[in-house]
Design goal:
The complex is a heterodimer of chains A (542) and B (287). With 542 residues, chain A is α/β, with parallel strands linked by helices. Helices cover 35% and strands 17% of the residues of chain A. In chain A, the strands form four sheets. Chain A has a seven-stranded mixed β-sheet, with helices on both faces. Chain A has a five-stranded mixed β-sheet with strand order 15-17-16-19-20, sandwiched between helices. The two termini of chain A are 45 Å apart. With 287 residues, chain B is α/β, with parallel strands linked by helices. Chain B has a single domain, classed as Rossmann fold (3-Layer(aba) Sandwich), CATH 3.40.50.970. In chain B, strands 2-1-3-4-6-5-8-7 form an eight-stranded mixed β-sheet, sandwiched between helices. The chains are: A alpha/beta (542), B alpha/beta (287). At the A-B interface, strand 6, helix 6, helix 8, helix 9 and strand 14 of A face strand 2, helix 2, helix 4 and helix 9 of B.
Chain lengths: 542, 287
């Protein structure tokens, strides 16, 4: 960002192509329904957000463009942009205007533009963009001077030392950073919104970090390549969305059978089928849970914050390698495309433990001589042994077998591999009073929005239990759920898929559900109302 | 000197019918590996599903027996992650040209330095006698009861037209020549397709050992560096030519073009995360 206000929240993804920016004097990381200032740049934009406008919403735009009864503060973005040379500069003019209204620092703004286009090797765009920014900034001064706008209605941004070293990144970048820190050196994927950002990020940094990045012909190829890469000694991942994962399911089952580590980033979007490609949903938890025929263990992680996206992605590679299982990282369009400032990430010290052995001549890839189901992994030409991976049921050497005794032993071996995992599982995170009566349950990307909604409500005995590991369901869950008088499950899907999973795992059924499945993320103000309503309706009881 | 024994597994019990062409292909492959003086540890055979795809179970090398139709993507990745390995993708016509057809096209485009062996018996053996993508027009089966009504795939013409850098066809009945061409395919730097004619003694009563003998001949007076001529020969229908149709040594293999192998030859397993660079990259995101 141009400036260093106390905090900024940028949430992308309204109905027309738009961006939501939230500015606050304290850290905010969730969107709100309320719109204070709207800058519509095309004629349909007002209609697209009309249900979120209030009497106090200020609209600034080309007045003649809009067929609306609402008051529009007239700023001719189109003409100003055309004067600079292209309608596209309307964007930068709007940013300059916003900067002016919030009394931001124009010098920092200009510096940002310089850095941004230099990094993209598009230096020729710098002068016109700076002119556009200045134009917008001056326009803000005019609006205030001519009293079209009361400047006190806006937060005035001041530099803050506290957040000077913060990183401003989005979820896709955090996953990418986590992958690099986790030792990822191979990604094969097929572009699919909203998961592509991770493929792009790792491709752009492939040279610096010795990463092979391959755009596969389809998701089937992508997942099979990644398993091949693990077999040859790489740390590989795929990134995809629901439809792509549907194609990968056979490959995930292959990873289960050949006991290959695998990291799958699944950025959810609303389905079924093509659904709403640029919107958000938490509708594919059960897809990740059941993807792949046959029975084999898996781990599903769902980061709730950008910091956690970095943390769990790193950990995903470690867990996949250690336990030789597929590990899913479940995010969504909202996580991928949202930016906010976070404290600096720490880079892991020490050698990355690869859990790979140098093989002896008598090496057996699936030796049953193990007490936790995990046979040390060898890779080809690393030692004297041969490494045989087989999708058929196989013997200890990895050779095809129909021996039922061997089948039983191999099933027990494979399905016991996560027995030791409990010790390093991610426990759910409890926020709020320990002696809660009402417990809101969330997972993945809803962390901040539920937290903010509860903060707003300030109910003394309501808490949030947030899961960043959704499967295996952490052991502590039952203890937390039992203690609550009323449990409210909050999910960005239709069926309350995590509530269903919790019920299967703990036997506790959750009756109160707040579900949103219109393709948009929760808003903290809207959610606060719904939680309040849910509590008063049931009186804080089951 | 590497012995052929090195690539044999003692007392191996195969799933193949007596007289199956797969035995001859297995022999030829072992012979080729021996003649190349490779160590079993250096060789990875990647296969899919089908009777042909079981071949790596019956010889002493590293094996990645994956999913039906999906041998080529992992083979490409294995070679990319460790170019020191000799990587062979092996399977049948249904596996490679049917279920895995899309990967066939795109592997040719990538041109990884791998050898692609396709046992072509023009029928599905494992699933008991249905048509394959190379079954001839009119071929009757329990499923295609009125005979096949789709055109068969011409894998050679397809590969040549897409710019595959080595394209050959052999008949497994000639084990010596089969071994020789497999050897040349392995030595070739880049993607090498060897389509191997093979009778299915149980499910294909049309394209028998005798039929292949009568309907094939050895390519002679052929310039294998002339792509147009190669394509023309690949389109012949009456009698089917055998030999190396096309080769192009000037194409840079996929893995050689990857930046990860530009300056370093160290296998992936020996490489370490560049923490300093990661710290710098993180710093560049400071607002």
């Amino acid at each position: 960002m141009f400036l260093l206000p106390k905090s900024i929240c940028l949430a992308y993804g309204e109905r027309s192509n738009s961006i939501q920016i939230r500015i606050s004097d304290h850290p905010v990381q969730a969107p709100v329904r309320r719109i204070d200032l709207l800058i519509p740049l095309d004629k349909d934009a007002i209609a697209h957000v009309s249900d979120r406008l209030s009497k106090s919403t200020i609209i600034i735009g080309d007045r003649e463009k809009f067929d609306t009864d609402r008051e529009v503060v007239d700023v001719s973005f189109s003409n100003m942009a055309k004067e600079i040379g292209n309608i596209i500069f309307a964007n930068t003019i709007a940013v300059g205007l916003l900067l002016g209204l919030t009394e931001g620092d124009i010098k920092e703004g200009k510096q940002f533009l310089k850095n941004y286009f230099t990094l993209k090797k598009k230096e020729e765009f710098i002068p016109d963009n700076i002119r556009a920014l200045e134009k917008g900034f001056q326009e803000a001064t005019r609006l205030v001077k001519e009293k079209h706008i009361d400047p006190d209605k806006f937060l005035h941004m001041k530099k803050s030392k506290e957040i000077k070293d913060d990183l401003l990144i989005n979820g896709a970048e955090a996953i990418g950073f986590g992958a690099i820190a986790g030792g990822c050196n191979f990604i094969s994927s097929y572009p699919m919104s909203p998961s592509t950002g991770v493929l792009v990020f790792l491709s752009q940094h492939a040279h610096e970090f010795d990463i092979i990045s391959e755009q596969a012909e389809d998701e089937i190829s992508a997942v099979n390549m990644a398993i091949g890469a693990w077999y040859a000694g790489a740390r590989a991942m795929v990134t995809t969305s629901g439809g792509g994962l549907a194609l990968m399911t056979e490959g995930i089952s292959l990873a289960g059978m050949v006991e290959s580590p695998m990291v799958i980033h699944l950025a959810q979007r609303p389905g079924p089928a093509t659904g709403l490609p640029t919107r958000t949903e938490q509708g594919d938890l059960q897809l990740a849970l059941y993807a792949g025929h046959g029975e084999f263990p898996r781990i599903i992680l769902a980061p709730g914050q950008i910091e956690e996206a970095y943390e769990v992605t790193q950990k995903a590679f470690y867990l996949a390698d250690k336990y030789q299982v597929p590990v899913f990282i479940l995010t969504d369009q909202y996580t991928m495309d949202s930016y906010y400032n976070v404290k600096e990430f720490s880079v892991p010290e020490g050698k990355i433990d690869r859990f790979i052995i140098k093989t002896d001549a008598d090496y057996q890839r699936y030796s049953l001589d193990t007490d936790n189901g995990i046979t040390p992994r060898g890779i080809p030409n690393h030692g004297e042994g041969l490494v045989r991976a087989d999708s058929d049921e196989h013997d200890e050497n990895g050779l095809i077998t129909e021996d039922m005794e061997v089948r039983i032993k191999m099933m027990e071996k494979r399905n016991s591999k996560l027995n030791d995992f409990k010790k390093e599982a991610f426990a759910p995170n409890l926020l709020g009073p320990k002696d809660y009566r009402v417990l809101c349950v969330g997972w993945g990307s809803t962390y901040h929005v539920i937290k903010e909604a509860l903060d707003k409500l300030n109910i003394p005995d309501a808490a949030l239990l947030h899961f960043k590991q959704v499967y295996p369901v952490p052991e502590e869950s039952i203890k937390y759920l039992r203690k609550a008088k009323q449990i409210i499950s909050i999910e960005n899907n239709y069926n309350g898929q995590f509530a269903q999973l919790l019920e299967i795992s703990t036997g506790i059924s959750i009756e109160t559900k707040i579900l949103k499945y219109n393709g948009l993320p929760f808003y903290s103000d809207e959610l606060a109302e719904e939680i309040n309503h849910a509590i008063s309706e049931k009186g804080g009881q089951k | 000197m590497t012995k052929i024994k090195q690539f044999e597994i003692e007392q191996v019990k195969t799933a193949w019918c007596p007289g199956c062409g797969n035995f001859m292909i297995l022999k030829a492959l072992q012979q080729a590996l021996k003649e190349l003086s490779l160590k079993p540890q250096q060789v990875v055979i990647v296969s899919g599903i089908g009777q042909a795809a079981k071949t790596p179970h019956y010889l002493n090398v590293n094996m990645f027996n994956g999913l039906h139709g999906r041998a080529l993507p992992p083979a490409t990745a294995i070679k990319a992650c460790n170019p020191e390995l000799t990587v062979i993708a092996e399977g049948g016509d249904g596996d490679m040209y049917g279920e895995g057809g899309n990967h066939f096209l795109h592997t040719i485009r990538r041109n990884p330095n791998i050898t692609h062996l396709v046992h072509n018996n023009m029928v599905y053996g494992l699933t008991k006698g249905q048509a394959s993508p190379t079954s001839e027009f009119g071929f009757k089966t329990p499923v295609q009861t009125d005979g096949v009504i789709s055109e068969p795939v011409n894998p050679l013409a397809l590969a040549i037209s897409m710019g595959a850098s080595f394209v050959a066809r052999v008949f497994c009945g000639d084990t010596k020549k089969t071994a020789d061409i497999i050897k040349k395919a392995i030595q070739h730097s880049g993607y090498a397709l060897v389509d191997i004619f093979q009778p299915c003694v149980t499910f294909n009563k049309v394209n028998t050992f005798k039929w292949f003998k009568e309907h094939t001949y050895d390519l002679e007076d052929h310039d294998s560096h002339d792509r147009n001529q190669a394509l023309k020969r690949a389109m012949e229908k009456e009698k089917l030519p055998l030999g190396i149709f096309y080769q192009n040594e000037d194409k840079n293999p996929f893995e050689q073009q990857l930046s990860v192998h530009e300056n370093k030859k160290t296998p992936f397993i020996m490489r370490e995360l560049n923490r300093q660079k990661l710290k710098e990259l993180l710093k560049s995101k400071q607002s």
